[in-house]
Amino acid sequence: MTDWLGLPALASAHGGQIDGMIAWVHVFMLILFVGWGGFFTYALIRFRRSRHPVANYTGVKSHTSSYLEVGVAVVEAILLFGFAIPLWAARVDSIPPESEALVVQVTGEQFAWNAHYAGPDGVFGRTDIKLLDLQSNPLAVDRSDPAAKDDITTVNQLYLPVNRPIIVKLRSKDMIHSFGVPEFRVKQDAIPGLTIPIWFIPNVTTAEMRTRTGNPEFEYEIACAQLCGLGHYRMRGFVTVQTAEEFQAWMNAEEAKLKEQDAAGPDPFR
Ligand SMILES: [Cu+2]
Question: Distance from the CA of 139 to the center of ligand 1, in angstroms?
Answer without folding.
Answer: 16
